[in-house]
Write a structure and sequence with these properties.
2 domains; SH3 type barrels; 7 strands; 245 residues
Length: 245
Amino acid sequence: MGLDIILWGVAGYIAFFIFQITQPTRQRTGWDFFLQVAVFSLLCFVFARTLIGLVSFIFPNLDRLGNWWHQRFHYYFHSLTLIIGILIIAPLFGVSLSFPCIKNRLHKALSRIAEISGKRRNFEFTDLFFAYSHKLLRKLVMITLKSSKVYVGILVAATEDPNETQRYIQITPVTSGYREKETHRLILTTNYIEDIKQPDVSPNRDILIPVAEIVTLTQFDSKLHARFVSLGLTEVRDAPMTLAD
């Protein structure tokens, strides 16, 4: 029984490892890591027992085959079959948990379980950058850089691997400009929407921006933008634009 428990713990770790490969923004350490591996181990065991019960129901003679196997071979050979079974069950289970309809429910359940530690945890994202990037993905954003350069564009992609030493975001710019150094007043000088209408201009204007160079990143609010323009807090020096959220 002791060896079985250890092996199912290994199965949980394998399933957890595969789950993290398919969902790289959901890395865990410390208590969260221990909790998730423990839950995965238990679920792998239940998953395997369910499959065995289902197969036994379909093939009634399987129980007799199992008894013969126990009598015929030494305990360690039985353990070998258990290990082989785990190496099959764990990857299947880890991949199946990556399906959106399953993983969202799993994250909510794990978050509720983690509350026993007295601290709320978000098991979907452990990192504010990943959570915020996921929220803004494919939406219109406004970015201010350390150089005072400002971009308004669609967030196309963001770094997904927590092990990367540097993080980046990729945007398709709609307009750009700068902030005045003393007043921080926004001046928009370039309208890429008008530029890409020209036949001699390539429409691929995606920009890769290091996160370390970003001062602010926020969702663009077209109503607030129009109000700031009317109040003179934002100046549009290029052709007028129609920007929707």
